[in-house]
Design brief:
Elements (H helix, E strand, L loop, with lengths): L3 E4 L21 E3 L3 H13 L5 E4 L18 H13 L4 E7 H9 L4 E7 L2 H10 L2 E3 L2 H10 L7 H23 L3 E2 L15 H10 L1 H15 L17 E4 L17 E6 L2 E5 L3
Parallel strand pairs: 3-4, 4-5, 5-6, 6-7
Antiparallel strand pairs: 1-2, 1-3, 8-9, 9-10
């Protein structure tokens, strides 16, 4: 079993502690085993400027030797990771697909589930009970099914991709039924990065435009503990704004593509793009 910690850190000049199955992680991930090792890893990442800690709690689509149903990290290891992150006033997010993995780690204090395609009613109810969030990433599987083969994704990964892709839309319905808060994000990299904003379209087909936009703004800010600062137009909030050609409540696809529908961008109260004049 290979257990990974991914860290959002400013310090990226380390020699990556990775094996062949994680060769594309670069310097943002490391393999760790044992309670003392995971505690040390989290502390080092916090000292290096990380804001959150992400762990692999189940197998992955792109992992050649880890079936999706695998569980990663022991109970004691996860407890140590969560405790150490909390001592640094932050939280742990976890890559997890299956209901078993999701329920297990949420009960152990993991705050945010990344992906969650194979969630069931029991796991979703536990998430709601513990106030956990989820960040579905449905565009990953949509893009991989379309162009994965031509960009070099292995056949074994494409088979696993279909398993989670087909359950992803159903997962949205289950999570909504139980009142689990959903943020918006994706894992797309490289040649598939251009499909990022298609996540909005996929979500909206199930949840509607307004709820999807709320997930991308209000809930996203809440997940990273920036409520009142991001995701709102309000006094004392950070003035990050988009000016669009159309109302996204009526046509959410105005946000798709590569920004063609964006007339203006204001960041921290200053114009970064302005085609209005």
């Amino acid at each position: 079993m290979r257990c990974f910690i991914y860290c959002l850190s400013r310090y990226d000049n380390r020699e990556p502690e990775v094996c062949q199955c994680s060769q594309h992680i670069g310097a943002i991930g490391r393999i760790v085993d044992g309670v003392d090792a995971v505690r040390k890893a989290v502390r080092e990442e916090m000292r290096s400027g990380a804001h959150q800690i992400k762990i692999m709690a189940s197998g992955g689509v792109g992992s050649p030797t880890d079936p999706i149903g695998n569980l990663q990290f022991s109970i004691d290891e996860i407890k140590a990771i969560v405790e150490t992150a909390e001592s640094h006033q932050t939280y742990v997010m976890a890559h997890a697909y299956t209901a078993k993995a999701i329920e297990r780690i949420v009960r152990l204090g993991v705050r945010t589930i990344e992906h969650g395609n194979l969630v069931d009613d029991t796991a979703a109810a536990v998430m709601a009970e513990y106030g956990a969030y989820v960040v579905p990433t449905l565009v990953i599987y949509d893009a991989m099914s379309k162009v994965g083969k031509e960009v070099g994704v292995p056949d074994a990964a494409l088979v696993k991709n279909e398993v989670v892709r087909l359950q992803g839309l159903e997962a949205l319905k289950i999570l909504k039924k139980h009142g689990v808060k959903m943020g918006l994000g994706t894992d797309l990299l490289g040649e598939m990065h251009k499909y990022q904003s298609d996540e909005l379209r996929i979500r909206a087909e199930v949840l509607g435009n307004a709820e999807t936009l709320c997930q991308a703004t209000l809930i996203g800010a809440e997940i990273i503990n920036m409520q009142g600062k991001l995701g709102v137009v309000a006094e004392n909030a950070i003035a990050d704004l988009l000016i669009l050609e159309e109302n996204p409540l009526q046509n959410i696809q105005i946000l798709s593509g590569q920004g063609e529908g964006i007339l203006g961008i204001i960041k921290d109260g200053h114009w970064e793009k302005n085609t209005l004049n």
